[in-house]
Amino acid sequence: MKNFDFLGLKEVQDFIEANLNETISKLALQKNPFPELDWKEILNQIEAKSKSKDKLPTWFNAENIIFPSKISVEQTSSEKTALYKSKLIFGEKIIDLTGGFGVDAFYYSKQFSKVIHCEHNSELSEIVKHNFDKLKVQNIQCIYGESDEILKAYNEQFDWIYIDPSRRNDSKGKVFMLRDCEPNVPDLLDFYFNYSPKILIKTAPLLDLTAGLKELKHVFAIHIVALENEVKELLWEIHQGYEEKPVVKTVNISKNSEEKFEFYLGASLSEASYGEPKKFLYEPNAAIMKSGGFDEVGNQFILKKIHPHSHLYTSDEKIDFCGRVFEIIDVIPYQKSEMKLYLENKKANITARNFPESVDIIRKKWKIKDGGNLYTFFTTDIKNNKIVLLCNKIK
């Protein structure tokens, strides 16, 4: 086991703090100011800690925290998404079968009386235990070993099992199907049910919902979690014996708000309503776009869709919406004369939805500079005409 005690020395911690904004390649070329200590590990601490500043402020701001490799920091949950997860579930006992750097376990410790943190990397397990001591968390037990063996050894009932399967496979590289991840959750579900009736699984944002449902059973809910309009996590809530349609819950977490939207998968009560562009335009956030609940958006918000495949919505009256909101200034046909008059050699923000040309092609073709206050949507209307919506952004 590697000895990390030297990282707690005041002079080493002071050096790490003083160099958080330096490039590692530059630091690596200089002479080791602590010749008797592990220079590579000190450099790793600087690089990993600098990457945690915005993502893991609790760890970044605490004293004498030890960081694992920068890859572990990059792969771990952010504090914002871990906090969101911790509000979804609660109880007396939870076991985190893929503990990693322990960010999720830290937040679960606020909702559960006891948390078991399992980690098959002995060095990482020791680091996490050290950090929990520094963070004064007393209800998390860190155990080194393989999760299935730990479950068998404990042989206890838990309120919840949490799993974040590794999305890297020795032979296949980065993978996205659940059966190619470690542990193989689909094949182990019945085994897990011996120890808990409820399981929360975190998967890659790129996993297709339909593909996930084919691999899993008893899915009670699917949570799509976006941070600042970028989907970060899919969470699969499994309840033993549940056989009904799952509810899809989307959230877009931003600095000052949480945009939430939900619907039952495959249970839309009515067809979408279509119409020509009106006064206001609505673009769903990334979490809703990932959900595929496009008809449900129009139905719940009482909006008209511009086209079945454009996924843009419109209304005469402005509403509070889960996504971007625009006021439509003008609607022009996508024709040479109109483009020359309104957009050629101008500055504009461009979005292309259900349109035969990409943003790059449009920008190059009409010499449109990026930026400014004008927002344009190149799209197709309900009559299959190619149109351009000229807009002011409201939200």
TrEMBL record:
GO terms for biological process: methylation. InterPro entries: PG_1098_Fer (IPR054168), SAM-dependent_MTases_sf (IPR029063), Thump-like (IPR041497). One of its GO terms (molecular function) is methyltransferase activity. The keyword Oxidoreductase does not apply. Keywords: Methyltransferase, Transferase. Residues 280-321 form the PG-1098 ferredoxin-like domain. Coiled coil: none annotated. Residues 323-393 form the THUMP-like domain. It comes from the Bacteria. The keyword Repressor does not apply. This is Putative methyltransferase. The lineage of its organism: Bacteria, Pseudomonadati, Bacteroidota, Flavobacteriia, Flavobacteriales.
